[in-house]
Amino acid sequence: MEPLRFFADECVFGLTVNLLKKSGFTVIRAQDIGMAGTIDQEIFEKAQQLKSLLITNDQGFLDIRQYPPSSHYGIIVLKMLPDPTHVKLVHQVLKTLLALEQQFEGTLFIVDGNKYRKRTMS
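Given the sequence above, the corresponding structure tokens read:
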């Protein structure tokens, strides 16, 4: 199995990017490749071009009609407040998700401070 690669939307906190990198994952941030301020559809397309999991705080990516799970390498939407305690809770759940899950392609993951959920196309 190939190691996971992430494309981080510009709204993803630096702490989250650092957590992923420290966990051994490759992370490309939108702002590092000149895509700050880019519309969601172009962010989505770039993640597919990079064959990477898209990680974002943008709730717009929860729309499975716009971004059907069968059309992507995986999306993780973090429901995270800019509060240090909440960030820690969400990061704990994210670490659990990354440790337990095997299949990311074609799956939308929704992560909050208590749990994660996943949606796939059945």
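The chain has one domain: 5-120. Try to locate this feature in the token string yourself.
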